[in-house]
Design brief:
Distance between the termini: 135 Å
CATH class of the domain at 92-156: Mainly Beta
Number of helices: 2
Strand content: 15-25%
Structural class: alpha+beta
Helix content: 25-40%
Radius of gyration: 43 Å
Order of helices and strands: HHEEEEEEEE
Strand order of the largest sheet: 4-5-6-7-8
Shape: rod-shaped
Largest sheet: 5 strands, antiparallel
């Protein structure tokens, strides 16, 4: 009978799972969890940088809109710079007059009109830098042009190469 009870106990023990009372849990593969955590940290960092870049782009777009509006307002306030002027058009001198070095000039502008200017005024894309008795100097960006009567001369040293006949200034083509 004891033998029969022992057999039954062995059969029952084989069907009941054993409980482990070990101090440490069984070793599991923790590597995927660490990789997943690092990926989440990288994604969070990327999202932060993306948010900063998006804000910077929005700021630059707003600054561009503000600059465009300022140009628009400047043109509305200062009608001496009409928007119909081509940036490539170079004015020519109609006449220059003044007293004691305080000159003003009348320039032929695009469209066949004339515009009276002083140093600092704008003619289209050009800014008047200097007015002398015989020429007007205008500047657009880094480009400087010396305007004579009736036409312009991009190189002022060419004036000295033309001979004077009877002390008269040669006619410049229109």
């Amino acid at each position: 009978m004891l033998n029969k009870k022992l057999k039954m106990a062995l059969v029952a023990a084989s069907f009941i799972p054993a409980v482990s009372f070990a101090e440490e849990p069984p070793a599991q593969n923790l590597k995927p969890a660490l990789v997943h955590n690092q990926a989440a940290i990288q994604i969070a960092d990327i999202n932060e940088r993306l948010a900063v870049l998006t804000a910077q782009l929005a700021e630059l777009e707003m600054k561009t809109k503000i600059a465009d509006k300022q140009v628009e307002l400047s043109k509305a306030i200062n009608p001496s710079t009409p928007s119909m002027y081509s940036d490539n058009y170079v004015p020519s001198v109609d006449y220059i007059d003044g007293v004691d070095g305080k000159y003003k000039a009348s320039l032929f502008v695009q469209g066949g009109n004339t515009q009276s200017v002083r140093v600092g005024d704008r003619v289209g894309a050009w800014k008047v830098k200097e007015i002398k008795m015989d020429s007007v100097t205008v500047q657009k960006g880094k480009e400087i042009v010396y305007l004579g009567f009736g036409a312009y001369n991009a190189n002022p040293s060419q004036n000295n190469q033309q001979p004077f006949v009877n002390n008269q200034v040669p006619q410049l083509p229109r």
